[in-house]
Amino acid sequence: QVLDCLDMSDWGGSILQSLSRHLRSECPEMRRLALRGLLVLRQDPVMADGVQSLTESLLELLWDADGELVWMALSVFINEVQDRGIPISTPTALDLAEALQTLFGYDNIHVQLLSIHLFRRVLKLVVEEGKQPLQTHVIQSLLPLFFLSHDE
């Protein structure tokens, strides 16, 4: 609620620095609060570029054992790629594809669906010259996706 009231042109940089620190915290509740803050901040156009700078920290959260943290990190990623439609660099796309592939079989159905949705968006937005290296990840992902869709 506080984030909705702040003028992000004045406070945005320091808020992102604080959230970045808390995303790497050992305390799951601090990471959860930071992700909630990012979900609110991403709605502000002034903050959109800043949220994109946290990609590495968000990628690390996709490997977390806490399903809620993974779901929230996926939500931040989806909001970034869906709303902005900015091409994704090849190294980021490869890291993201690798992390998302492991989430296809996650215990939580919401995490599964979000990871599949994000994977499809990443494939559409990857920079043209980066499509070839992603082919391996796509091929490896087809069989688990087939089994998952067959089970559903």
Automatic annotation (TrEMBL):
A GO cellular component annotation in the UniProt record: cytoplasm
Domain Maestro/Maestro-like HEAT-repeats: 15-151
Entries under InterPro entries matching the protein: ARM-type_fold, HEAT_Maestro, Maestro_heat-like_prot
Protein name: Maestro/Maestro-like HEAT-repeats domain-containing protein
